[in-house]
Amino acid sequence: MYYLGFDIGGTKCAVSLGKWNNQNVEILFRKEIPTKNCPIETFNGLAPFVKDLISKYPIKRAGVSCGGPLDSQNGVIISTPNLSEKWHGFEIVSYIKSRFNLDAKLENDANASAVAEWKFGAGKGAKNLVFMTFGTGLGAGLILDGKLYSGTNGNAGEIGHVRLEDDGPIGFNKKGSAEGFCSGNGILRLAEITAKEQGIVLSDSLTTKEIFEKAKSGDNFYLSVITKSAEKFAKVVSLVIDLFNPEIIVAGGVFMRNYEFFTSVMTPIIERESLQDSYSVCKILPAQIGENIGDYASLAIAMLEN
Length: 306
Fold this sequence. Notes:
Layout: E1 2-8, E2 12-20, E3 25-34, H1 39-56, E4 59-66, E5 70-71, E6 76-77, H2 92-100, E7 104-108, H3 109-120, E8 129-132, E9 140-144, E10 147-149, E11 170-171, E12 174-175, H4 178-181, H5 184-198, H6 208-216, H7 220-244, E13 248-251, H8 253-257, H9 259-273, H10 276-279, E14 283-286, H11 293-303
Helix pairs in contact: 3-11, 5-7, 6-7, 7-9
């Protein structure tokens, strides 16, 4: 069976064609274009490729992965912060149906990535799985009792909103939140706050990637910053273990790229903080799909039957 996936991002949008063989998905085609301020202009750029694929393959359904907030039940992008206001309120599912005569499903990127890792990646075969983004922000997708759980209005899994400290880097518009400590942007803000406290002047062009490079080269200041992030993430993971009793927790982004370092810091904290019976049956793994997860995530949502 063939499916289309639309990965909608702030800087780029991509369309992918996937072939499902009852065991795995093979991406046969992918085209990426810059995201325009207007959704119609963006789809005008994708349309020639979509129409060509529809003419050549019997495509069953399309899936759309996009940052939230979304109304996934009605297929509407509500107010995604990395997209211009012209995208806000865009009825993307009905638009795809009317323009391409394709049924489509919309899910936020954390949920879509959870389904992808569950169907194709590190969580394949699991009944209870939590996927955590740990990228630009921190969100979670929940697979509970073998089904995607989105909550009453699609806001389940917003673990980044949990406040870990009264003060600290801002994430989710909240000081000291989990996203403030455990995200790419949050680590950069944490470095700035820590430097100010210690009277250290940082480069205005400093990036999260450079923070990790400097830490790995032995710089104690940057090592202390990412150690603190790892310690906070351990407490977030412990909370997830206690709340959901999952078989597998999969984390992408920063955690995936620095798995060995994070694990070495996190393991003793999780052993101390989480319920032992729950921790003993839970594996904590890096995302297996890797940097192209957006393509697989959108295709996974297209394949989701429930």
